[in-house]
Amino acid sequence: MMVIVGTTTHLRYQSTLQGKCPYCEVNNSNLELQLYCDYTHLTLIPLFPVKRHGSIHCTACNALIAYEELPQDCKTTVDAIAYQKRHFPIWTFTGSLLILLSLSIFIKNWYVKSHTDYPLEQLQKGDVVFYETEKGYYSSFKILERKGPTFKVVHNTYIQNTFFDLEDLNEPSNYSKQKETLTLSDLNTMETKGYIEGIEKSKLNSF
Asked: For the residues 133-144, what does the mean pLDDT come to?
């Protein structure tokens, strides 16, 4: 597949003004205003915008009119339109947004892989499990004790909406005083569904 990188000009606005042409000097001539934006693309996918520009020409004599040559009332109108259209169209950022999304997914997958190498079967007292809730939030629970395949845990009372910096949640004061019971089967189910984001081993179990 051929990858093409280039720049494309897009006509984003067109309007007709009434004013005197400085070349043919026709009063109330139709002066056509066109506003463009240039954007860089990668194989027809817009990456990001690079420039705004425009042109004005007389429909009577087809002369290209510089902004400085316009009557003052036309300048005022053009200034107002240019200000209103000063933002680039959001679709011109499509490629950049896709790249950021792909990078975000890559980082998440790397993070999960690098933090879940510790097998669930080896979880012990003091270990902290970071997980994603069914509603898409992120939190953690700490293992207080283990008896065979059964764990006594306390849940973190704080949640966040991003998987970055999950370790910041692991403050002793954040955890509930109420104990809950989870089984190894429960944890395996969470892992199968992709809910477990990482495991922080207790320093007591790190040797």
From this structure: 94
DSSP secondary structure string for all residues of the chain: ----EEEEEEEEEEEEEEE--TTT--TTEEEEEEEEEEEEEETTEEEEEEEEEEEEEETTT--B--GGGS-HHHHHHHHHHHHHT-SPPGGGGHHHHHHHHHHHHHHHHHHHHHH--S-GGG--TT-EEEEE-TTS-EEEEEEEEEETTEEEEEEES--BS-STTGGGG--GGGEEEEEEEEEHHHHHHHHHTT-EEEEE--GGG--
Residues 32-64 pLDDT 10s? 999 999 999 988 899 999 999 999 999 999 999
